[in-house]
Structure formats: C-alpha cells, structure tokens
Design goal:
elongated; Helix Hairpins; mainly alpha; Ribosomal_uL29; single chain
C-alpha cells in the first residue's frame, strides 16, 4: 500500500490495517521458524508496511495535538 493510499484511510481503518498486518507478520515468522517459507523477503515487506502505518498514525496524532 502506498503512502498516498494511507493518507486517504480513516483512523479506524488505519488501526484495523495495522492489527491485520501485525497478525500476518506473526504468522509469517511462525511459518518461517517451522520450515523455510518460499519468499522470506515477504517478512521484510510486511515489517515496512507496519512501519508506514505507525508513521501515519503518529503523524496524525502530532497534527491533532498541535491544533
């Protein structure tokens, strides 16, 4: 998901997407620990997506606090 798409989401949608991505990361890590997954770079991509979501949430909190 691109940053421009994240900006369009509401706060509730961001939180839901964040929890979904965290769950997916947990599943990927578990699957990778049990046996090697087909594409281990997917773990990195999910981690970066979580970081993007957290960044957008923090940016919105800072904007609301400054107003």
């Amino acid at each position: 998901m691109k940053n421009s798409e994240l900006i369009e989401l509401s706060a509730e949608e961001l939180a839901a997407k964040l929890s979904e991505e965290k769950g997916q990361l947990t599943k990927l890590k578990f699957a990778h620990a049990v046996s090697a997954i087909e594409n281990p770079t997917r773990i990195t991509k999910v981690r970066k997506e979580i970081a993007r979501l957290n960044t957008e949430i923090t940016k919105r909190k800072a904007a609301s606090a400054s107003n």
